[in-house]
From TrEMBL:
Residues 5-49, 76-110 form a coiled coil. One of its GO terms (cellular component) is prefoldin complex. GO terms for biological process: chaperone-mediated protein complex assembly; protein folding. Keywords: Chaperone, Coiled coil. It comes from the Eukaryota. InterPro entries: PFD_beta-like, Prefoldin. This is Prefoldin subunit 6. One of its GO terms (molecular function) is unfolded protein binding. PANTHER family: PREFOLDIN SUBUNIT 6 (PTHR21431). Belongs to the prefoldin subunit beta family. It holds the Pfam family Prefoldin_2.
Length: 122
């Protein structure tokens, strides 16, 4: 029973680590979403003939406004779909983690009862 408890605890800890990684991923995506939304708003304020430059490595490369706007729109679409994917992953991991936590608690209780019975019989 002790080995099973250790195995369950290890599984629970792995789920918690996966959950933590997914939360970090979600936070990064939120940050990227906000940054790109700001860029999108700024593009809307620009005139059609405005100069837009994109940093590629150490070089600023001139970019067409339509192309730049399209790239940002596509990036926003991608980030939003990734957020949805990570949200599903978070929900799934939370559910699995909660179930595993209950299993660990139940097994701990059973183990304690077993220890008490063993102690009482000695």
């Amino acid at each position: 029973m002790e080995a099973r408890l250790e195995a369950l605890t290890g599984e629970y800890q792995k789920l918690q680590k996966d959950l933590s990684n997914a939360i970090e991923s979600r936070q990064r995506l939120d940050s990227q979403l906000q940054e790109n939304e700001v860029v999108q708003k700024e593009f809307k304020l620009l005139k059609d003939d405005a100069n837009i430059y994109k940093l590629i490595g150490p070089v600023l490369v001139k970019q067409d406004k339509v192309e730049a706007t399209t790239n940002v729109d596509k990036r926003l679409e991608y980030i939003k779909s990734e957020i949805q994917r990570v949200e599903k992953q978070l929900a799934d991991l939370s559910e699995k983690s909660d179930k595993k936590k209950l299993e660990v608690i139940e097994l701990q209780r059973a183990y304690q009862v077993q220890i008490q019975k063993t102690s009482a019989s000695n």
